[in-house]
Design a protein that fits this description.
The chain is an alpha/beta fold and 357 residues long. The chain contains 11 helices and 13 strands. The protein has an 8-stranded parallel beta barrel, surrounded by 6 helices. The two termini are 27 Å apart. The chain binds flavin mononucleotide.
Amino acid sequence: MHLFTPFEVRDVTARNRVMVSPMCQYSCEAGDGLATDWHRVHLGSRAVGGAGIVMTEATAVTPRGRISPQDLGVWSDAHAEALAPVAGFVADHGAVPGIQLAHAGRKASTRRPADGGDPIHGDDGWRPVGPTAEPWPHDDPLETERLSVDEVDALVDRWAAAAERAVDAGFEVLEIHAAHGYLLHEFCSPVTNDREDRYGGDFENRTRLLREVATAIREAVPDGVALFVRVSATDWLPDRESWTVDDSARLAADLAPLGVDLVDVSAGGIHPDQQVPETGPHYQVPYAERVADGGLPVGAVGKVTTPEGADAVVRNGRADLAVVGREHLRDPYFAIRAAEELGHDPPVPRQYTRGFQ
Ligand SMILES: Cc1cc2nc3c(=O)[nH]c(=O)nc-3n(C[C@H](O)[C@H](O)[C@H](O)COP(=O)(O)O)c2cc1C
């Protein structure tokens, strides 16, 4: 097994084990959540560049689930229509189109990083929702609206409807974003979940919403579609009651019988006091190894930047997918370069073969 061994799950076959990590582009021009030429070219380039799976950025399942007004969305049929050419182009060029389904929870309604990243007050913004009324800690916090049980239940349907639309648009892998301090992570972590109803309290209750979302999506989409879940393996808050790597392994075991196919293992994002360790190459791979104890395949992300390193992650059985983020911003052709350097046939589109003879 190595980086260019195809990855097979359900009806999906990825030509290699390089996945483009979800990365927000903040590029919906009118603030309407509709995919633009930018998404087509950006994601299309990474398919042309040889990746096995090309994952979209966090794509909001409801308008209030956007981080910024420029986020991508999939909350209506018009969104699916705008996304269909993205998925179609990616698939036509040999990669598996994946979409990350997301809700930003209490971290919603901020300006995009290029505009300062501050909370947006007034008509341009909206009130974030979450498991708690406590706002995301910030110099200038926006009030968070605490979701009622009925509203939480209604959100489960929104996730399922978004998943159905994504499949109609041509996506073959769906990834539930349950990481980085956004809505589903906020429910799972005791740092942000102070509820006393069936969605708060012990591990079982805090993870209930994520399990309900996974179950609803699995029921809503065909069996052949693959379902991934991205988690923050740890809150990086060792000095207080928080979400731990052991919790993530336990969660993986709970997700397996619900039809989840892979856990994409990231970390952090729930609180600004987090203690991020030294982040050298592959710093999150040990988390992926531990989460794999839960019995599901895993993806490892975090400073996987070289062909040899990505290959070693897979070859040494540390993870099933090498998930590559920022290196794909520097080099859209990372997978082609990796194949050449590692001695495999590079996944080159026919239009470019003259460049590789
Ligand atoms: C510009 C940018 C946008 C990101 N947006 C998302 C996102 O939409 N969803 C997500 O789960 N992670 C997001 N991330 C995190 C990456 O997917 C990845 O986990 C992180 O960058 C670490 O991997 P890397 O060292 O290969 O970049 C983003 C990272 C960057 C740099």
